[in-house]
Design brief:
Helices cover 0% and strands 50% of the residues. The strands form 3 sheets. Strands 1, 12, 13, 15, 16, 17, 18 and 20 form an 8-stranded mixed beta sheet that branches. Strands 3, 4, 5, 6, 7, 8, 9 and 10 form an 8-stranded antiparallel beta sheet that branches. Strands 2, 11, 14, 19 and 21 form a 5-stranded antiparallel beta sheet that branches. The two termini are 18 Å apart. The chain contains no helices and 21 strands. It folds into 2 domains: 13-27 and 125-233, Jelly Rolls, CATH 2.60.120; 34-120, Elongation Factor Tu (Ef-tu), domain 3, CATH 2.40.30. It is mainly beta.
């Protein structure tokens, strides 16, 4: 998603109940899973290559997530769960798809196998190497004086070893109105704090309870290193 721009031409996205809104990064809600029936599998220098009969779904792209069940070769080494693929190609004449992905196991030549393969589209992160302010999301307040809780998720790649991401709110999308969102229970700022390649002292999932704002955005500061970031908020 683009960064925040204080402009009448930059429209905030509308938060829908049950559908995560991506503040940083993206995910296609319109792309379904790909279903395959395993035919053969092989491993060479920790790289797996499978062939499988295409059943339905889109042609996967690099980064899509492969899962396999009921494979028996190499003591079940090919039974993986949501591993990012390197590539996928499809032969329409034979209705066979070839998929390549990393797999740490002993080498094996292409051998007949059977199993069920599912390939899911993956979230796409955005590279963040310094201060970053996300686009805004509009939350429709409930009727009356009701309040709501907003779950927030911010995950950074291992190349980012320190990062603070704070949730901000405003009534109108103008730069001078944005202020930190405070936890209604503790009074502390609602933020995700990354302290290492894979460690967090707060997050990666936090909640902003008892909210009744209109516009929300994410401000990332104090970034050490560079990698992709995915941030989403739920309604």
């Amino acid at each position: 998603m683009p960064t925040y721009v204080n402009s009448p031409f930059a429209r905030p996205q509308l938060l829908q109940k049950g559908v995560p809104a991506y503040l940083i990064g993206s995910f296609s809600q319109l792309t379904g899973n790909t279903k395959l029936a395993l035919l053969t599998d092989a491993i060479a220098t920790d790289v797996a290559t499978i062939t499988a009969t295409f059943i339905d779904g889109p042609l996967p792209v690099a980064g899509s997530l492969i899962s396999i069940i009921n494979s028996t070769n190499s003591s079940g080494a090919f039974n993986v769960n949501r591993v990012p693929i390197t590539s996928a190609s499809y032969n329409a004449t034979t209705n066979v798809m070839t998929v390549v992905f990393p797999l740490t196991a002993s080498n094996q030549t292409a051998t007949a196998d059977a199993g069920t393969v599912a390939i899911e589209p993956a979230e796409v992160g955005e590279t963040v190497s310094g201060n970053y302010t996300s686009q805004a999301v509009l939350v429709q307040a409930p009727e009356g004086d009701s309040q709501f809780t907003l779950p927030l998720s911010v995950t950074g790649g291992s190349g980012i070893t320190a990062m603070t991401a704070a949730l901000q709110m405003a009534i109108k999308a103008q730069s001078n109105e944005w202020t930190a969102v405070l936890d209604a229970v503790t009074g502390n700022a609602v933020k995700v704090v990354k302290t290492g390649a894979t460690t967090y002292t707060s997050g990666p999932v936090v909640e902003a309870p008892l909210e009744r704002g209109y516009l929300y955005r994410l401000a990332i500061t104090s970034v050490t290193g560079s990698d992709t970031v995915i941030a989403k908020i739920g309604g």
